[in-house]
Amino acid sequence: LKTAMGQSHAKIIFFGEHSVVYGQPAICLPVSKIKTSVTITAVNTGQTIQSRYFTGKLSAMPDSQTGIQLLIRTILTELKQEATPFAMQIESAIPAERGMGSSAATAIAIIRAFFHFFEEPLSHSELLRLADVSEQYIHGNPSGLDAATTSSRFPIWFVRGRRPQTIPIKQNAFLVIADTGILGQTGLAVQYVKNRLAQDPQAELAIEHLGQNAKQARICLANGDANTLGHLMNDTQKNLAMLGVSHPLIDQYIKLALDSGALGAKLTGGGMGGCLIVLVNNQTHAQKIATVLQQNGAVQTWTEPLRSLKHKG
Ligand code: MEV
């Protein structure tokens, strides 16, 4: 039986969520241990999908899955395989709607799996262009950052409309990622910031400030300055909260983390729920903070040494 697989992984935004939509730079980190895999198997008839949301025919996918359905049809049309039967299985360890790029990761893994299955070459720009089909549908005005990071093995510096650059990280600090369990609402949050910008001049300053923080953070990542990095995270969180995209539970967990000696903490991704990230000096401390957050209700935590996120060059 002919099968092919495509993979991708979670992402976190270290600096630059929301401001990236308005042309400011963002720093995004791949989280390679949290994976999405798509397997396509040749079958005699039918085009079927099996995933955590839906099992059945491609043509019968519910409205919530229209983005994915649209993506699959676009790929099949471009590869001139509209009528080819297949069975697709999507498996993902990325929690959905938590700002960890689960929708983009699914798109990336699906595209890779199909191109692999049909033995067609796939360039990186083609991969990102196709991922944008479902991301546009799901988010309305995506910066492209999620697709760029869930398909990259390296930390990236992302400016909307430009080719992502990989960046060096020289840091011994650790990150704790914690899931509040509350669904993040990226589409809503992006719209909220847009409305805010139309009404409040302070919002524009906050966006610029977020971009400045990303620029400074890039320098701190390269020279190992974890303390300043922590301050920049706290300041970023203040500005994101000012824009209205934090959440009371995120605020509560951030306070807990900082009271437990973290260097900095902020929401990650679209916000209004979802995940937060916490910067700490070492692994022991990371474990301690992860435990504190779990004891207070965080549904899942991951710890990640920043130095494991190596630069390509
Ligand atoms: C979502 O992960 C990040 C946002 O900046 C939206 C986007 O970049 O498309 C909130």
From TrEMBL:
Single GO biological process annotation from the record: isopentenyl diphosphate biosynthetic process, mevalonate pathway
Keyword list, A-Z: ATP-binding, Cytoplasm, Kinase, Lipid biosynthesis, Lipid metabolism, Magnesium, Nucleotide-binding, Transferase
Residue stretches making up the GHMP kinase N-terminal domain: 75-149
Any single Gene Ontology cellular-component annotation: cytosol
Protein's name according to its UniProt entry: Mevalonate kinase
Domain GHMP kinase C-terminal, chain residue ranges per copy: 220-297
Any matching Pfam family: GHMP_kinases_N
InterPro entries, alphabetized: GHMP_kinase_C_dom, GHMP_kinase_C_sf, GHMP_kinase_N_dom, Mev_gal_kin, Ribosomal_Su5_D2-typ_SF, Ribsml_uS5_D2-typ_fold_subgr
